[in-house]
């Protein structure tokens, strides 16, 4: 093997066919990480011509394959829905569709992790006047993709994530999301103040990896608050 050969991008790595059980397992995985507790959090994945969206108000550790909402992506005609009519599709659905159509990505994950909430607070030195969280010179930056450069970030580069104001319902975030997509072509995530984060990518694998990297960096930022000198080094 040529050790100088560049590895393929995450989205290009061929994986086994993605199933409804895989979707459910991912949701349960995020629940166990305390990212989707209290029925919060959501995920949307494009599988061929279909769009799979998680249900709202269902405890994530108890979600079943039959609870997934499936739509025709082009027409948004519903192809599968839970038998229980009280179960509704995630309120994030409109946001997922907007991101997927505008950025031509295949997956969006929304989580309510503690770290992604804390880094948006006004008391944080990481909440900059331009309403962006940012960091540089951290190893996990290299796990985040830059769609403008069409490569992952380098250790020496700065990663920025736009922060928007929270709203009463998640679908009301749409105007702010559109602004983020218009103004930040390099963004693969959006933080919502006192709420959580949305992360999107070219595949579920890439999106999951970036989500894990982002959340690690958010948690690191929170810890760095305790050390002012290190904090300044972290965000530049």
TrEMBL record:
Keywords: Amino-acid biosynthesis, Lyase, Metal-binding, Methionine biosynthesis, Zinc. It comes from the Eukaryota. Transmembrane segments: none annotated. GO terms for molecular function: metal ion binding; methylthioribulose 1-phosphate dehydratase activity. One of its GO terms (biological process) is L-methionine salvage from methylthioadenosine. The keyword Glycosyltransferase does not apply. SMART domains: Aldolase_II (SM01007). Residues 21-222 form the Class II aldolase/adducin N-terminal domain. Pfam families: Aldolase_II (PF00596). One of its GO terms (cellular component) is cytoplasm. SUPFAM superfamilies: AraD/HMP-PK domain-like. Belongs to the aldolase class II family. Adducin subfamily. NCBIfam families: salvage_mtnB (TIGR03328). Catalyzes the dehydration of methylthioribulose-1-phosphate (MTRu-1-P) into 2,3-diketo-5-methylthiopentyl-1-phosphate (DK-MTP-1-P). Functions in the methionine salvage pathway, which plays a key role in cancer, apoptosis, microbial proliferation and inflammation. May inhibit the CASP1-related inflammatory response (pyroptosis), the CASP9-dependent apoptotic pathway and the cytochrome c-dependent and APAF1-mediated cell death. This is Class II aldolase/adducin N-terminal domain-containing protein. It comes from Mesorhabditis belari.
